[in-house]
Amino acid sequence: MATNAQPIGVIARLLDLSERRIQQLSREGVIPKAERGQYDLVAAVRGYVAYLRDLAVKAQAGAPDFGVERARLIKAKADIAEMEADGRRGELLPADAVEAAWTAVLARLRARLLVLPDRLAPLCHEETTIAGVRDQIRKAVREALDELAATPVIAADPDGAGEAGDGDPAVALDPASAAGALDQ
Questions:
Q1: What is the pLDDT of residues 5-46, one digit of tens each?
Q2: 10 Å Cβ neighbour count for 67?
Q3: Is the Cα dihedral 127, 129, 130, 135 positive or negative?
Q4: Cα distances (Å, whole numbers) of residue 130 to 90, 117, 122, 123, 127
Q5: Rounded to whole angstroms, how far apart are CA atoms 165 and 168?
């Protein structure tokens, strides 16, 4: 088979690379070398095209880009600093404290709701009208909701960690403010 051996300068101009880069690619096995200072033209072009194709596949597969990764790191550090500042100002609560507070509120609500039938059965039995039964049920539900509204949900610690269920109501989140107009 006849080879089309060309000097490194021709290959470099054809591939729009420096002669030094051609030598590097040859050492990496991308461009096969025919003989000293000479390269097979077809093999060099095929090798370089395959090399570029592999680079494109790696780029599409999400090969890490230093600039992008550095920008992500800087953004993550800025987000952490912002969360710490919000926490110090009392604008941010730890997730475990919020979860514990909601668990306490929901447990209290569950307990109040489970007691309603036993408490309302005798009262409703004495009522002679549907309107009277409805009023008894409304009164009992309102009492349960008022009790929950008066319960402090999360109190801030000096550490900023937060506590669920107890603490100074002045620093607690006000559950009544969430109800809004008409206690809804």
A1: 888 899 889 999 998 998 899 889 999 887 777 888 899 999
A2: 8
A3: negative
A4: 49, 16, 15, 12, 8
A5: 10
The pTM (predicted TM-score) of the whole model is 0.41
Q: Which of 166, 144, 143, 145 is nearest to 156 (CA)?
A: 166
Which residues, including other chains, have CB under 8 Å from residue 17's CB and lie 6 or more apart? 25
Distance in angstroms (rounded) separating the CA atoms of residues 79 and 94:
15
Burial (CB count within 10 angstroms: exposed 0-12, middle 13-18, buried 19+), residue 112: middle
The whole-number pLDDT of residue 162 equals 45
Comparing C-alpha atoms, which of 9, 64, 15, 66 is closest to residue 38?
9
pLDDT in tens, 49-92: 999 998 888 777 765 677 888 899 999 999 999 988 988 888 88
> What is the full DSSP assignment across the chain?
----EEEHHHHHHHHT--HHHHHHHHHTTSS-EEETTEEEHHHHHHHHHHHHHHHHHHHHTT---HHHHHHHHHHHHHHHHHHHHHHHTT----HHHHHHHHHHHHHHHHHHHHHHHHHHHHHHHH--SHHHHHHHHHHHHHHHHHHHHTS--EE--TTS--EES-S-TTTS--HHHHHTGGG-
